[in-house]
Amino acid sequence: MTENVSAAAVSADGTVIAFTAWGEGEPLIIIDGATAYPAINPTNEEIGRLLSADFRTYAYDRRGRGESTDTAPYAVEREIEDLAALIEVAGAPATVFGWSSGAVLALDAAAAGLPIARLVLFEPPFVVDDSRPPLPVDYVERLDAAVADGRPGDAAELFLTAAAGLPGEAVGGMRESEFWPVMEAVAPTIAYDGRIMGTTMSGAPLPRDRWAAVTASTLVMHGTGTYPFIVAGARALTELLPTATLLAVEGEQHSAPAGVLAAALRDFAHTR
User: Fold this and answer.
1) How many Cβ atoms are within 10 Å of 144's Cβ, its own excluded?
2) How many degrees, rounded to 5, is the angle at CA 16 between CA 4 and CA 93?
3) Regarding the domain delimited by 3-128+207-271, which CATH topology (the fold level of the hierarchy) does it fall under?
4) d(CA 253, CA 257)
5) How far apart are CA 248 and CA 17, in angstroms?
6) pLDDT of 35 higher than 70
7) What top-level branch of life does the organism fall under (predicted)?
8) Dihedrals φ, ψ of 16, to 5°?
9) How confident is the model at residue 272, as a pLDDT?
10) Residue 67: which of 22, 9, 23 has the closest Cα?
11) Nearby residues of 141 by Cβ (< 8 Å), 6 or more positions away
12) How many other CB atoms sit within 10 Å of the CB of residue 67?
């Protein structure tokens, strides 16, 4: 098994995108969701090692996180270019697996025409009904203002309460933990995911035209123990995409063990 520990791709705007790769075979690229990156999400490495005989798996630090750099001004298109640079290194076409809001970025990249053979999307956090409050309409603006004012902790707290749905008292305890500096370090990137989500957490139906160009075979996954709004969103996306299949993962929530995910990825790749 070949492993690259400190390799990088260079995006179109010069941003350096750090990645780690495991295994041999066709390329599989993992996109993390809001705040996450491989150094704090060990599941990515576990997936790569479990699939080392099937895939060359790439887990990367999205711009502004971990070892990757960043270049202003931000636009979702820049993150699509980041993925394009990684696919160029990995080889095309690639299978792309996206966690949470990373799944939505994967969809946007496929709609933009990147050479993606398959999409595997785990719990994109769409809010398409009234089973939870929608994001505040000024969510991204408040995130930007907090970061600009030197209050990254407030941006992280807004994400955890308004987007992730944690109670304020729980976040208060987190602010006293050893993990909080990690959240503050990635706080400037939280608005990036807010922009990626766009209006898809407003409680309205998903936009019918945003991913109309997606033709890749797509597996949409959700846990059976997850939030009801996640289940509703996964079903809505599956109904929207002609190439999509829905898979309910028994007992899981807004995460799943590497073994479960690796098995689903392997099975999907062997049948599509």
Assistant:
1) 18
2) 65
3) Rossmann fold (3.40.50)
4) 10
5) 32
6) yes
7) Bacteria
8) -90, 125
9) 81
10) 9
11) none
12) 16
Residue 19: both structure tokens together: 């990645």
Structure-block tokens of residue 71: 């270049």
CB 119 within 8 A of CB 110: yes
Question: What 8-state DSSP symbol labels residue 192?
Answer: H
Domain spans in the chain, listed from the N-terminal domain onward: 3-128+207-271, 139-197
3-class SS string, 39-88: HHCCHHHHHHHHCCCCEEEEEECCCCCCCCCCCCCCCHHHHHHHHHHHHH
Give the distance, in angstroms, between the CA of residue 77 and the centroid of all CA atoms in the same chain: 15
Read off the pLDDT of residues 201-224 as tens digits, 9 standing for 90 and up. 999 999 999 999 999 999 999 999
Q: Would residue 3 be called left, alpha or beta, if left means φ above 0 and alpha means ψ between -120 and 50 degrees?
A: beta
What 3-state DSSP class applies to 197? helix
Give me the amino acid identity at 198: G
- Tokens read off for 144: 């930007």
Q: Closest Cα partner for 123 from 145, 100, 153, 156?
A: 100
Provide the whole-model pTM: 0.96
Q: Could you tell me the CA-to-CA distances from 168 to 111, 141, 154, 173 in Å, in that order?
A: 37, 20, 12, 9
Provide the pLDDT confidence category of residue 2 given band limits of 50, 70 and 90: low
Long-range contacts of 160-165 (CB under 8 A, 24+ apart): 162/135, 162/136, 163/34, 163/125, 163/135, 163/139, 163/194, 163/201, 165/132, 165/227
